[in-house]
Amino acid sequence: MTYELFIGSRAYSSWSLRGWLLFERFGLTCKVRKVDFLEAGVAEQLEAVPPARTVPTLRMTDGTILWDSLAIAEELASRHPEAGHWPSDPTARAIARCLAAEMHSGFTALRSQCPMNLQAAYSEAPVRGDLQADLDRIEQIWDHARTSLRPKGPWLCGDYSIADAFFAPVAARIAGYGLPVSEAGQAYVAAHLADPAFRRWRAMGIAEGTDLPWYDRDYPLADWPGPEPIPARAVDAGPSINETCPYSGDPVTDYAEIAGRVIGFCNPFCRDKSVADPAAWPQLAPLIKTM
Questions:
Q1: pLDDT attached to residue 38
Q2: DSSP E strands, 72-143
Q3: Which residue, 83, 108, 125, sits at the end of a domain?
Q4: Is residue 164, in this structure, part of any structural domain at all?
Q5: Does the keyword Membrane apply (predicted)?
């Protein structure tokens, strides 16, 4: 039996992003089950996995149901100590746990005023007092981690950890709404936007094409501030340079022009997630390596 991870819309569900990163970023596999926010209530769609009522929900390999993202993180870390979910250094691990716990329970102004929307970016978003207080606190604890631990890379506690997975949607909000943070904060946000796992999640969210208008905000639109994607577009027909889909190995039925080359895929979703951000997908690298 494999892990089954129940998620919501990739473009909007920040908690689902956290749950998925706990697998994708740490070399663990799971079968993803999609809960459609437009189809019915989340609790109704999760009736087959009681007592879950929210996403992410995880069915463990032994059938145990976990319906809380921090519990999912801790249990995966316990069952897969080799994966490195938490830092091995005791001080770094303690700080990472505090960071993840505060993110799990706090920052309600940021959550409510700036819901995650990976299909849009805004400028001139208002920053009222309670939102500014959240941003100040976020920067305070980010700075505490970096000052205490002096990590060599971009992540808060050394190597990428649960703390970074939990703050990935925060980075998406700061970037997507153009929220004011320090130079160090901007660098940490940029690390998330450039992270291949985050980019794959966002590309799949764009490919899904789900529109949840209650997440929209009436602010001026801006370009997404992450890395500029390789030029790509869907096309109606081949021939393609490949005969089988780079993801599934199945015969190609759908096509895209990527960096001037026509590449084939086994279904529209494989095509569209590739068009959204070709460089995010290692499977495409051999086909576009001559760029």
A1: 87
A2: 121-122
A3: 83
A4: yes
A5: no
